[in-house]
Amino acid sequence: MHTDWRDALLPVLRTAEFARLREFWERAYATDPQTLPPQEALFAALTLCPLAKTRVVILGQDPYPTPGHAHGLAFSVRPPTQPPPSLRNILTEIQADLGRPAHIRGGDLTPWAEQGVLLLNAILTVHAHAPLSHAGKGWEPFTDAIIRTVSERREHAVFLLWGAKAKAKIPLIDASRHLILTAAHPSPLSAHAGFFGCRCFSRANAWLTAQGLAPIDW
């Protein structure tokens, strides 16, 4: 992770709770070759998007459970992997919202992260083909601390919370300082029930511009 994240999270990193989490993921990678994403990508979101640059937070649930898909950024996949259904729906909404395709290659959201979009999953590891298999192992308190850190350390950030699990994080965010945009999850199961038409991307940029910040080139 970037050094400014490490510095900001130092009180958390020194806790017994985090030590147990570290023991869990180190054991998982050492004993289970089906642990995803690749270990070198575990903290990619916190490496590509330093705290000092973070302007937008997009919260996912856990990594894609299909081997070869997850690379440490929520919702993102690298070519030649085709965008999975939720990401396809995100790209469809960008086209409808902004009137143009997303400025990315395939489904790789790395350019967003490099602009200050924190693509954070609530759970950072998963066993292949078993969604949410690493829930309750200690990741959730750690990623909650990351959300709180953005809320406390940054000004005028945008939090995009899609689906009930993401919306449950609202109490971690100071709504008097930041913009919280909620919508249904982009999954095919719910996209037509409040994700399509949410215009989250143009609304996020309108907020950033109004605060004197550069918009995101989605």
UniProtKB/TrEMBL annotation:
Residues covered by the Uracil-DNA glycosylase-like domain: 47-208
Main location: cytoplasm
Active site: 62
Pfam families noted in UniProt: UDG
EC code(s) of this entry: 3.2.2.27
Catalytic activity, as annotated: Hydrolyzes single-stranded DNA or mismatched double-stranded DNA and polynucleotides, releasing free uracil
A biological-process GO annotation: base-excision repair, AP site formation via deaminated base removal
Key word Cytoplasm present: yes
Subcellular location: Cytoplasm
Any GO MF annotation of the entry: uracil DNA N-glycosylase activity
Function: Excises uracil residues from the DNA which can arise as a result of misincorporation of dUMP residues by DNA polymerase or due to deamination of cytosine.
Family label: Belongs to the uracil-DNA glycosylase (UDG) superfamily. UNG family.
Cross-referenced HAMAP family: UDG
Record protein name field: Uracil-DNA glycosylase
Organism annotation: Candidatus Spyradenecus faecavium
Gene name linked to the record: ung
